[in-house]
Amino acid sequence: MPAIAIHPDRNFKYWLVAPAIFLLLLIGLFPLIYSLVVSFMRIDMMDTDTSFAGLYNYKNLFKDSRLWWSLAHTLLITVIALPLELLLGLAMAYLFLEKMPGRQIFISLLVLPTIISPIVAGATWRLLFDNKYGPVNQIVSWFAGQRIDALWTINPSLVYPAIIFCEIWQWTPFMFLILLAALSNVDKSQTDAAEIDGASFIRTFRFIVLPAIWPVMAIAILIRGLDLFRIFDIIWALTQGGPGTKTETISIYAYTQGFKQFETSYTAAIAFLVVFILTVICTWAIRRMGLVK
Question: Which of 5, 19, 40, 231 falls 20 to 30 Å from 132 in CA-CA distance?
């Protein structure tokens, strides 16, 4: 009996993944395209003008000083919090690199802040910073030797330290875990040889450890940088952008315009401005860090 030749469909593998790809495009691409279309309209709470308005909303972006101040607030938080999280995470990773009693338990306790919802963390720290009932002022008073009534979430000179402290408290363990994993994979024979040759810790770190962990460190910096640029939850729970608009970030400003002022088309234009800025920053950072050849 002659054998029956079977000719499998070479495109069958694509048909298998097609539904998943279509679903991802529907969920991710459709809202993006719809928002882009809306940004060229004049839809707000009082008017639903779906006619083409050209670059009207984008022109208004350059006249909106509050928008650019919110962008400046976002960058300020990012450039302060990101290096501190990196340095503290690296120091903690070096501390727990060697074997010690209860190492796993301490690591588990240290990463607990990262699993807490940012809005819950912000609300918790708001209670801790409370002038009457919060323990933060009491602890500061003990060290100062006198009663301190610091208004952490109201005083313009104290609100940024409070926000940055909360952000560092929650996300430094993230940097710590990633850098600990990277340091654990460094070739110990090279560092031991450098130590025998009399190389200092700084030279060993610069010429041996840093090149080995740099790809992982660069990705961690990029991830945290993007997270900090879109920071919303902690600040909203702590200050809601106040006092006034002192701590209003670009995400909080977009939320205010979209869900309180109902400036739908203008909010869509803000969103695409943020997308453009992040695209430029990410492209520059990836090339600068050498993540893509």
Answer: 231
